[in-house]
């Protein structure tokens, strides 16, 4: 098999949050890493972007958080849950080395992570699309075939290929990665950016079979997102996205509706019809998956980026470990930390709750997040190892 001029320790497909973070961490450990991404540097992507404490701790540990804050992303001092007309305010107390949460737009967050990866020595190529996995005689993945922006195809060798290319991952498809757990529910969502709204608190609103969120972000704006059952989205919301968005804002909270009446929309609304969550088999001979390619939850609980950062570190540690079983224990640890988050998110996405029964689900999420934070904080402990 003939490869290009250079062979890499790792090729990562995808330069978004999971891919850029994994590549950066691997390069910081001395590995040669190539990242290929189909889009352009700094391009937006379909995503809301609230970071939970675990995600902010990771950005802080990696030295990325100062750039996020310097770009005008406001610190979040509290989270407010709106259960109908009742408010539950939870101040963000100092823990894990951080005293605030942040919700940077993906145009800022992804770009800053890529900058960090490049500073660590990662080679990043935009406009490249992986078309096939290359395998050695024993069946182990040993590189990729990729199409350049000019249309030429190049065979590039690597010790391992990582798919960080989203929930419709090409790498997962080519590797034959099976779905090991499937969610039963999906929500449809519409979101947009607005100026003139509260910018120091996350706000989560819950009503009768509707939900919404307000996430302060950079550029003086806040992201407002509404969520409905997938059936309602298909039958109503997708037919007139703006009208459907406005209708749910009024349904979920008169307070939010009043605030939105005085806000200015910046840019168009974006819609997501919903995909049922899944957990995939995430490793095999010469390949691995991370981020949404490996594990996707309904976005209703806004925990995807935080989990992507967690798993980027788990995978990078596994790859740089001397243990031959480390890549297997990456998935074991991922599954352990994800099980309750996945289950609670799927239950919330069902909308089969009322304003009382959703609270135990939020408590379940909170307990799972505490365990996740404990694991992330433990990454810095000298004795920390990946659990079997």
How would you sum up this structure, described in words?
The chain is of the alpha/beta class. It has two domains: about 10-50 and about 105-185 and about 275-380, 3-Layer(bba) Sandwich (FAD/NAD(P)-binding domain); about 185-270, D-Amino Acid Oxidase, Chain A, domain 2 (2-Layer Sandwich), CATH 3.30.9. It is about 35% helix and about 25% strand. It has helices at about 15-30, 55-60, 65-70, 105-120, 170-175, 230-235, 240-250, 255-260, 305-320, 325-350, 360-380, and strands spanning about 10-15, 35, 80-85, 85-90, 125, 130-135, 140-145, 155-165, 180, 185-195, 200-205, 210-215, 220-230, 265-270, 280, 285, 285-290, 295. The strands form three sheets. Strands 1, 2, 5, 6, 7, 8, 16 and 17 form an eight-stranded mixed beta sheet that branches. The protein has a seven-stranded mixed beta sheet with strand order 4-3-11-12-13-10-14. Strands 9-15-18 form a three-stranded antiparallel beta sheet, with no helix packed on it. Helix 1 (about 15-30) runs parallel beside helix 4 and helix 9 (about 305-320) packs antiparallel against helix 10. The longest helix is centred in the last third of the chain and has 24 residues, at about 325-350. The model is unreliable at about 385-388 (pLDDT under 50).
Determine Rg (CA atoms, Å). Answer: 21 Å
Q: Give the class from helix and strand content and strand pairing.
A: alpha/beta
What is the number of E strands? 18
Number of domains: 2
> Number of helical segments?
11
**CATH architectural label of the largest domain:** 3-Layer(bba) Sandwich
Q: Estimate what percentage of residues fall within beta strands.
A: 25-35%
């Amino acid at each position: 098999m003939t490869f290009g001029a250079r062979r890499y320790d790792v090729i990562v497909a995808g330069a978004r949050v999971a891919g850029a973070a994994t590549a950066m961490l691997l390069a910081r450990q001395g590995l040669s890493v190539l990242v290929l991404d189909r889009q352009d540097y700094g391009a937006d992507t379909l995503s809301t972007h609230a970071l939970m404490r675990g995600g902010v701790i990771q950005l802080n540990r990696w030295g990325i958080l100062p750039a996020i804050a310097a770009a005008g992303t406001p610190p979040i001092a509290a989270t407010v849950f709106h259960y109908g007309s009742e408010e539950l305010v939870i101040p963000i107390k100092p823990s894990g080395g951080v005293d605030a949460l942040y919700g940077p737009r993906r145009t800022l967050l992804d770009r800053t992570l890529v900058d960090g990866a490049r500073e660590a020595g990662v080679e990043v190529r935009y406009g490249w699309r992986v078309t096939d996995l290359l395998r050695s005689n024993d069946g182990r993945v040993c590189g990729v075939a990729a199409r350049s922006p000019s249309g030429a195809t190049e065979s590039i060798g690597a010790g391992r290929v990582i798919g960080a290319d989203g929930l419709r991952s090409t790498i997962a498809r080519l590797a034959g990665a099976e779905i090991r757990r499937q969610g039963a529910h999906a929500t449809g969502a519409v979101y947009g950016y607005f100026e003139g709204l509260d910018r120091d608190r996350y706000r989560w609103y819950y009503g009768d079979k509707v939900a919404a969120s307000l996430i302060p972000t950079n550029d003086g704006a806040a992201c407002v997102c509404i969520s409905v059952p997938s059936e309602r989205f298909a039958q109503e919301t997708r037919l007139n996205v703006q009208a459907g968005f406005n209708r749910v804002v009024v349904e979920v909270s008169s307070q939010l509706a009043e605030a939105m009446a005085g806000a200015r929309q910046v840019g168009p609304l974006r819609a997501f019809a919903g995909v049922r969550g899944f957990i995939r088999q995430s490793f095999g001979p010469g390949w691995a998956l991370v981020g949404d390619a490996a594990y996707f939850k309904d976005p209703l609980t806004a925990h995807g980026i935080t989990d992507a950062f967690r798993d980027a570190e788990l995978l990078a540690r596994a790859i740089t470990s001397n243990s031959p079983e480390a890549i297997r224990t990456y998935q074991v640890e991922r599954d352990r930390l994800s099980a309750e988050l996945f289950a609670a998110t799927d239950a919330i996405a069902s909308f089969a709750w009322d304003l009382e029964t959703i609270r135990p689900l939020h408590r379940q999420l909170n307990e799972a997040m505490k365990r996740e934070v404990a694991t992330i904080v433990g990454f810095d402990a000298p004795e920390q190892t990946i659990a079997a």
